[in-house]
């Protein structure tokens, strides 16, 4: 019998900075979903991200019975609701979160509760990789060490979100950044908060489809 070209399994389209956490949830059987990742490297440019996100959405839509859910924060395409507008344009549901760190904290603006004055940098494993890649490109383009450190001026320090149980490895990677900021606190949060945020979006998507 010929298989259907569509699948009934829920689909997520996600920023690849969350790839390790979402893969862990899938591997442990806590999320039964297909996930399509969009490269985190596009995140340095709103227009570049939008272009590639649209391509991914339009390529993915015909392959699933239900429209994919977007695992992107409200602020990922700009500060004026651009990501919500994109989701509405395609009739899609997105997670209720401001950014990827908010997803890891449980969404619904919890990042604002954790850092109301925007005094800290929050890193999870994927965000560390993102900054390492971005830093290499900036150095290749001629940015000096002093300029790199100035980018974090006004920030008190780093809050490490230990999502995968590899805090010591993450701390070593942060040292490589050389941005002059110390890890002030390590929060062992695991991937449960992310699971809740994603599950809520999937459930809203199902209600919308019915």
Tell me what the structure shows.
With 210 residues, the chain is α/β, with parallel strands linked by helices. The protein has nine helices and seven strands, in the order βαβαβαβααβααβαβα. The strands form two sheets. The protein has a four-stranded parallel β-sheet with strand order 2-1-3-4, sandwiched between helices. Strands 5-6-7 form a three-stranded parallel β-sheet. α8 (167-177) links the parallel β6 and β7 (183-188). α6 (125-140) packs parallel to α8. The model has no long low-confidence stretch (mean pLDDT 90).
**Separation, N- and C-terminal Cα atoms:** 28 Å
The helical percent reads 40-55%
Give Rg in angstroms.
18 Å
Structural class: alpha/beta
Could you say which overall geometry the principal axes of the C-alpha atoms support?
Answer: globular
Count of distinct strands: 7
Indicate the proportion of strand residues. 5-15%
Total helical elements: 9
Order of helices and strands: EHEHEHEHHEHHEHEH
Which strand order does the major sheet show?
Answer: 2-1-3-4
| Overall average pLDDT | 90
The low-confidence parts are: none
Major sheet characteristics: 4 strands, parallel
């Amino acid at each position: 019998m010929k298989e259907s070209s569509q699948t009934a399994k829920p689909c997520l389209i996600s920023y690849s900075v969350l790839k390790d956490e979402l893969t862990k949830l899938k591997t442990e059987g806590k999320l039964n979903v297909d996930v399509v990742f969009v490269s985190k490297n596009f995140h340095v440019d709103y227009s570049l991200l939008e272009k590639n996100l649209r391509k991914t959405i339009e390529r993915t839509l015909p392959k699933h019975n239900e429209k994919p859910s977007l695992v992107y924060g409200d602020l990922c395409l700009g500060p004026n609701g651009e990501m919500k507008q994109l989701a509405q344009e395609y009739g899609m549901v997105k997670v209720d979160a401001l950014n990827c760190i908010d997803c890891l904290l449980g969404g619904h603006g919890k990042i604002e509760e954790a850092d109301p004055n925007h005094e800290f940098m929050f890193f999870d494993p994927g965000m560390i990789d993102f900054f390492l890649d971005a830093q290499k490109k900036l150095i290749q383009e001629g940015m000096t060490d002093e300029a790199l450190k100035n980018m974090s001026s006004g920030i008190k320090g780093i809050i490490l979100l230990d999502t995968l149980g590899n805090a010591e490895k993450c701390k070593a990677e942060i040292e490589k950044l050389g941005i002059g900021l110390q890890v002030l606190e390590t929060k062992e949060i695991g991937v449960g908060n992310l699971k809740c945020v994603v599950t809520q979006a999937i459930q809203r998507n199902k209600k919308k489809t019915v």
